[in-house]
Design goal:
The protein is of the alpha+beta class. About 40% of the residues lie in helices and about 30% in strands.
Length: about 120
Amino acid sequence: MLGDYAENEIRKIPLSNNTIHIRILELSDNIKESVVAKLKSRLFALQIDESTDISNYAQLIAFMRFIGDDVIINQFLCCKKLSTTTKGQNVFDRLLAYLEKHGLSWDSCVGVCTDGAPSIQ
């Protein structure tokens, strides 16, 4: 579409596995910082679930919902490995650690939604 010259120029860009990995991590950190910055100045609600991945590791998945520019925004917050069990206390402790690490306050959380599984209640 762009021609042979453009193709040759693109091929000169170093794209090793390490380079791509580093760029993905940088993009991920940038998105996380942007989301956390938005949450620090707004009320938000959390939607959390625990799940076991294909490697048989328990994962905590959290989404948040907040109002931005007069629109309700649903945003992925985090996916964190649960190092202990999937009991409600362990899920809460992992979520608490994440919120505290990023300077987010429970005072701004107006609701928490779960799937109603016994491990979350």
